[in-house]
Specification:
This protein has 308 residues and is of the alpha+beta class. It contains 4 helices and 17 strands. The chain folds into 3 domains: 213 residues, Immunoglobulin-like (Sandwich), CATH 2.60.40.1730; 40 residues; 32 residues. It is rod-shaped.
Length: 308
């Protein structure tokens, strides 16, 4: 009994930390938030690019909060063949909308949504709030100016400047680590003399191309195996145990016992000796004689009988 209790305690010690690591204390290794105002809509396009910290147990379920008025458009996983769509669910509660999806491995993930921009004639204003859903090792924020932008400012300041492939100014900043539950807020103001969109009537193609929703059959199979590998391994293990038990039972039933073999051998020997009893052979030429013969029918020698 004591051994069983010790074994149960050891199993619990192994299982509970694994469950805790899979459900809580998640760490985002790097989170890059890209803000593209008036890109292909007169709204703010928000793009999250992130990776999970090394050692994270996968597959794992992720939940990110976005503003309640946000319109989710896509969640994708980055693969060697490009971005592939990931199923997601969303539910609203108060000021937030919770987006839920599954990370199959430690590759890069991306999701996008739109939120309104406040217009005041030529002046524009928007803010972004990271609600602190997870611990983040490295947080990066960047804003891409729409065309013909003037008087751009942000709080906090985004000190790094670069150009997009479309030659649009990009302002960015790296803000180190952010603890779970800690909010990070960015306020942005700028002015424009036009309402023209950066990309008019074109599908959004952020960071590396369009999201491929036509996943090949191989990719579907691999994704299914990855998500359900623990169940598959458990099923295979149970199947092997059942097959082993059936083989053991059938081989045991088909093998005769030692007593049966001895009994069979003994019976076989008795039959053979009894079948030879009463047979008479000529001592001269070896020909078989009939019980009633007195002389060999082949050589004529008198038959010797043991009882004579």
């Amino acid at each position: 009994m004591n051994r069983l209790l010790v074994l149960a305690a050891l199993l619990a010690a192994l299982i509970v930390p694994s469950m805790a690591g899979a459900q809580g204390g998640m760490i985002v290794n790097e989170l890059r938030v890209r803000l593209w105002p008036e890109y292909d809509r007169s709204e703010l396009l928000v793009i999250y690019n992130f990776t999970l910290a090394p050692g994270t147990i996968t597959p794992t379920q992720l939940q990110f909060r976005v503003p309640a008025e946000a319109q989710m458009t896509a969640v994708a996983q980055e693969t060697p063949n490009g971005l592939f769509s990931v199923d997601f669910k969303s539910s609203s509660a108060g000021d937030w909308q919770t987006v839920t999806f599954e990370a199959a491995d430690l590759s890069s993930y991306q999701f996008e949504y739109y939120v309104p921009i406040h217009f005041y004639d030529k002046a524009r204003h928007f803010n972004f709030i990271w609600p602190g859903d997870y611990n983040v090792n490295t947080f990066v924020a960047e804003v891409q100016e729409p065309s013909q932008t003037t008087d751009f400012s942000s709080n906090p300041a985004l000190p790094n400047e670069s150009l997009s492939p479309d030659n649009l100014p990009i302002h960015s900043g790296t803000f180190g680590s952010i603890d779970e539950g800690e909010q990070w807020v960015l306020d942005v103001n700028y002015s424009r003399a036009t309402d023209d969109l950066t990309v008019s009537g074109q599908p959004v193609q952020p960071s590396g191309g369009a999201i491929d929703t036509e996943v090949s059959s191989t990719a579907v199979v691999m994704e299914f195996l990855s998500r359900n590998r623990y169940y598959i391994l458990g099923f295979v293990g149970i199947l092997l145990i059942v097959v082993g038990l059936l083989w053991y039972w059938q081989s045991g039933a088909a093998t005769p016992s030692g007593n049966s073999r001895r009994r069979h051998t003994s019976q076989g020997g008795k039959d053979k000796s009894s079948s030879n009893e009463g047979q008479i052979y000529c001592h001269e030429c070896g020909k078989r004689a009939q019980p009633s013969d007195k002389f060999c029918r082949a050589c004529g020698v008198r038959i010797r009988r043991e009882d004579s």
